[in-house]
Task: structure prediction
Amino acid sequence: MPAAENVHRHPTKSNARTSAGIATVGAIRKKTSADHWQIGATRGMVATSQNLITISRNANFHEQANSGPGGHVVSGVRVLVGTRKGAFILTADGRRERWNISGPHFAGWEMYHLKGSPVEPNRLYASQTSGWFGQKIQRSDDGGQTWEPMGDKFVYEGVPGTHQWYDGTQHPWEFKRIWHLEPSLTDPDVVYAGAEDAALFRSSDGGRTWQELPGLRGAKGALWQPGAGGMCLHTILLDPAHPGRIFIAISAAGTFRSDDNGQTWRPINRGLKSQYELPDPDAEVGHCVHRIAMHSSRPEVLFMQKHWDVMRSDDGGENWREVSGNLPSDFGFPIDVHAHEPETIYVVPIKSDSEHFPPEGKLRVYRSRTGGNEWEALTKGLPQGDCYVNVLRDAMAVDALDPCGIYFGTTGGQVYASANAGDTWNPIVRDLPAVLSVEVQTLP
Amino acid sequence: MIRVVLPAHLRTLARVTGEVQLPVPDPSTQGGLLDALEAAYPVLCGCIRDHVTLRRRPFVRYFACGMDLSHEPPEWPLPELVKTGTEPFLIVGAMAGG
Result:
């Protein structure tokens, strides 16, 4: 079955550059969700899942719990894990020490992505896909205890047209799967879906029906070309400060922005350089963007993990500059932003596009507290030898607790968590199928 | 009634166990059977055939009476033993090595 990572076509890039740091600005909390949540309601919970297991683990975090006055726990987290063979839901209270693990949900299916509504956190959307039986969209309205299949008729608007194919010919758009689901920030019935072959779909009825936003493919779509992982729309960022503004990213086409709710789009790739991937390193489209991230308090600032290079934009994607700095490799897939420190960002360096594992066999998250350029390795609790897993683009997330929790999953089936912004790590679970995606919900 | 055996993943999706039994209007064709199956279990739409073109998905096979009917057109009449319910119509996920 197709891989959820890009396999690439160019030589290793050596990278040990350093450059000046960027000033840190004040911390602002992310919006947190507000809904009821129960820990441990897992057994016999999903009509469409099989072979559910429920286990608890003590993850032995070293750092402080998330506590309110008097020391009582004030909140919890629900981690939604998509894997190659099903979905898993990991829950803990605000201390993030003891974990309840339920799953596999939808056993045997590739679960590319699960995500909860920010305004109705017990509403979860899930992308369930299979090389045999196609695409399904599942929805839960009780935090993952039960699921209902929604609509899965993803039909390109009008005559789909063509895009570049591997052999240089034009190839018709063909729907393959949904990589990413992004619920609206304000309406639990509105959700966006990023497809392969790359397109953006929107549902306004809770996932029952889907309509393409075809203007995106009008943004030089005929020039887009799949990477070996497929031509997937994998990132959708909804701008909380500018209603109607949406950022998306496609491999291997680049980053695009709409300012009118997805009706019209334009490429925003100025400053990206792909000298090993494109004949024109500064091409308007064609860049292999792996992931983009923003902090909701400063949506004009975007961070990008490109195929090679970690990039930053301070003007809503109009211009990008490299902030790879002293990373041991600036190849990688995920990138994320600390929940309360908009200048603190995280990446997981991978050796190269031809060797999709950590440099030196050491699994290290790198953190920059200066918005890039100056990076520190976070290693405590992570394997520092003989580790050859990958961390895929949608497999990192942050919670909104204080201290901020960071989570990522590996192709080796481990889900690691840090309850102290990355200072120390522990595995929540070690032996899942290859992890495709990780999302976390912060719950009261 | 025509008997249909679904692969495990589609039984789970359709929330059925064992065989599915369907009335299929005359003339009982392969396409008519799939129409009836999807009408009875809408969640299966898109899983066996493409939503729009109604072409069989590449890794789905149709077997009956010891024959591979996967490449027969939708208007192909079902075998008599399937029409009478003596033999089931099997919808199968194609083999995958690894």
User: Anything to note?
Assistant: The interface with chain B takes residues 47-50, 108-109, 130-136, 149, 152-153, 155 of chain A (CB under 8 Å). The CA atoms of residues 357 and 390 of chain A lie 5 Å apart. DSSP finds no helices and 31 strands in chain A. The radius of gyration of chain A is 20 Å.
